[in-house]
């Protein structure tokens, strides 16, 4: 297959767990969510689009190399790779490519496209061919409100000759959740009922985090980005009006530099408006891109499409902020591990990935009537991204010090081990804070998050030409932190230094330097008689509610300028 023939398709994932044995079976719940209605059995000649994630090479080598380029004490710090160099490292073996392509061609599948790294194939085929390719599948059309999609809810298999060459197949089982189901607040508009208050605006952000009128971007080679999913769109007119109302006193841009993808029609989403308005007012005067994935095909997964776009573009922004996630337990290990590799690829290129920690505190999963556990989220729990939690002002009527926002997502992964860069900080928290929640509620050895935080409560946003108050969530704090890191990148570029890239190893070595420590407050969790709605609590230094704290821009800039 010619690497120059590339197209990014839109699709929704299903996930398969590769196991030893004759067949490869789907490990994901194939049940139909209540809000999706069965319409009809799909005709055999209708088309579906499946995505095949081919096994990559040198994954362990990638992990070690990422540690070196991200560790300020390493002689390889900041020596990032180009997309082409990453592709040469991870490209599937010739055997893997041959086996998968022969398998597809033997079923008459020819309409396939790939990406620069050659590790994904997206193929269009008829339903009849798909059901022959994946024995057990039976595709039906489902509807939710005005949206339809094609899915099979039965388990399927992949033959043993192929299973060892694939990580997962997408486009079969998974139903996309509604925005509100993604993480209770990750659709962006958790609107407080606190009455009149100060409200968070760009001037408040800049005052609290010590940004002056001179702290704006000037480097020509700097850029930042947000990504929009779940039919979330921003309107250029909203951004222009927001900047007119709230961005006086400092140089800024009032328009997005580049939109990657197609903006959908209809009303602007609060989530999308929030992301764009606050990354551009915090990271002021810096070129900003918007990746937008409305999902035009009946098999769609905009999040993975965005990840693949990054594997298909040699020049992308240096900082990306994303307010999107799902419960770890709703995703397969195979899928999450593969997405982690995609994050590694970004880090090797010097790209900073920031994800919102979520708005459900520690979360809660009801295992039985008598037993609950906390519920970590992904990608917030990934060891290869920087996760941002949330805070509130102690006094909501003026700019004061910050305390925990009770919705701030945080906790410990049930899937990923604690990475080396955070071992000392997390163990110090576990030893010093008492009492902790019962250990039956969380995985004490897991990757802990968030890594840092910012204000997440009571933002002003302009959406559909109307200023809207009381918008809250870590989807607000994340673009603020992203904009501040972009400003630091800007100063680094002016001095000939590389981008910050994957910042976590350096962040943890700073041990809170350049950040305001947040030491008050707890976040929410399960409403039961054992934890009584309380999750983890903030403490001096790192904690699983606000991480290392919130930015003090001048001090953080100084700490990161070598």
From TrEMBL:
EC annotation from Swiss-Prot or TrEMBL: 3.4.14.9
Record domain Peptidase S53: where: 199-562
The record's Pfam families line, in alphabetical order, gives: Pro-kuma_activ
Query: According to the lineage, what is the superkingdom?
Result: Eukaryota
Q: Where in the cell is it found?
A: Lysosome
Instruction: Output the Gene Ontology cellular-component terms.
Output: lysosome
Q: Which CDD domains does the record match to this protein?
A: Peptidases_S53, Pro-peptidase_S53
Cofactor(s) this protein cannot do without:
Ca(2+)
What class does this enzyme belong to in the EC scheme? hydrolase
Tell me which InterPro entries the record gives.
Peptidase_S8/S53_dom_sf, S53_propep, Sedolisin_dom, Tripeptidyl-peptidase_I
Which GO molecular function terms does the record list? metal ion binding; serine-type endopeptidase activity; tripeptidyl-peptidase activity
A biological-process GO annotation: proteolysis
Catalyses:
Release of an N-terminal tripeptide from a polypeptide, but also has endopeptidase activity
The residues forming the signal peptide are 1-21
Which UniProt keywords are given for this protein, alphabetically ordered?
A: Autocatalytic cleavage, Calcium, Disulfide bond, Glycoprotein, Hydrolase, Lysosome, Metal-binding, Protease, Serine protease, Signal, Zymogen
This protein's record includes keyword Hydrolase:
yes
What PROSITE patterns would the database entry show? SEDOLISIN
Catalytic residues, chain numbering: 271 (charge relay system), 275 (charge relay system), 475 (charge relay system)
Task performed by this protein: Lysosomal serine protease with tripeptidyl-peptidase I activity. May act as a non-specific lysosomal peptidase which generates tripeptides from the breakdown products produced by lysosomal proteinases. Requires substrates with an unsubstituted N-terminus.
Q: What is this protein called?
A: Tripeptidyl-peptidase 1
């Amino acid at each position: 297959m010619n690497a120059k023939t590339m197209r990014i398709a839109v699709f929704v994932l299903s996930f398969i767990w590769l196991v030893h044995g004759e067949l490869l079976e789907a490990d994901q719940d194939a049940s139909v969510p209540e809000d999706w209605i069965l319409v009809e059995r799909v005709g055999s000649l209708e088309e579906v689009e499946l995505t095949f994630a081919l096994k990559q090479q040198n994954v362990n080598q990638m992990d070690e190399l990422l540690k070196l380029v991200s560790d300020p004490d390493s002689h390889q710090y900041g020596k990032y790779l180009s997309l082409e160099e990453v592709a040469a490292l991870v490209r599937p073996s010739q055997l893997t490519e041959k086996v998968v392509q022969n398998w597809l061609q033997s079923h008459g599948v020819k309409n396939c496209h790939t990406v620069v790294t050659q590790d994904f194939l997206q193929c269009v085929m008829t339903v009849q061919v798909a059901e022959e390719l994946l024995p057990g599948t039976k595709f039906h059309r489902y509807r939710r409100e005005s949206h339809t999609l094609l899915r099979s809810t039965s388990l399927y298999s992949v033959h043993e000759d192929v299973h060892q060459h694939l990580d997962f197949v997408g486009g079969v089982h998974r139903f996309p959740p509604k925005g509100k189901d993604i993480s209770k607040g990750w659709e962006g508009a958790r609107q407080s009922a606190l009455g009149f208050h100060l409200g968070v605006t760009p001037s408040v952000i800049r005052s609290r985090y010590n940004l002056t009128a001179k702290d704006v971007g000037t480097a020509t080679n700097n850029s930042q980005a947000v990504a929009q999913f779940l039919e979330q769109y921003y309107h250029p007119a909203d951004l222009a009006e927001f900047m007119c109302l709230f961005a006086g006193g400092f140089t800024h841009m009032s328009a997005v530099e580049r939109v990657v993808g197609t903006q959908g029609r209809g009303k602007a989403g609060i989530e999308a408006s929030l992301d764009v308005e606050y990354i551009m007012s915090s990271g002021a005067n810096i070129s900003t891109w918007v990746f937008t994935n409305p999902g035009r095909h009946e098999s769609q997964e905009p999040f993975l499409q965005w990840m693949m776009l990054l594997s298909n573009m040699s020049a992308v922004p240096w900082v990306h902020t994303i307010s999107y996630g799902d419960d770890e337990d709703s995703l397969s290990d195979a899928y999450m591990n593969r997405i982690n590799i995609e994050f590694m690829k970004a880090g090797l290129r010097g790209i900073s990935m920031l994800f919102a920690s979520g708005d459900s505190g520690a979360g809660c999963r009801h295992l039985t009537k008598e037993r609950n556990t906390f519920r970590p989220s992904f990608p917030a729990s990934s060891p290869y991204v920087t996760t941002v939690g949330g805070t509130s002002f102690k006094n909501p009527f003026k700019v004061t010090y910050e305390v925990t926002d009770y919705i701030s997502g945080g906790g410990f992964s049930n899937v990923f081990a604690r990475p080396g860069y955070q071992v000392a900080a997390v163990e110090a928290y576990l030893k010093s804070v008492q009492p902790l929640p019962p250990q039956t509620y969380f995985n004490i050895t897991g990757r802990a998050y968030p890594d840092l935080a910012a204000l997440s409560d009571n933002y002003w946003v302009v959406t559909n030409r109307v200023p809207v108050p009381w918008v809250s969530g870590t989807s607000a704090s994340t673009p603020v932190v992203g904009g501040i890191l972009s400003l630091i990148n800007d100063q680094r570029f002016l001095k000939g230094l590389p981008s910050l890239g994957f910042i976590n190893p350096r962040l943890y070595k700073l041990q809170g330097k350049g950040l305001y420590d947040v030491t008050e407050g707890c976040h929410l969790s399960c409403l039961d008689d054992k934890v009584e709605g309380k999750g983890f609590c903030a403490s001096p230094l790192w904690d699983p509610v606000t991480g290392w704290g919130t930015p003090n821009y001048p001090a953080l800039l100084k700490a990161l300028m070598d």
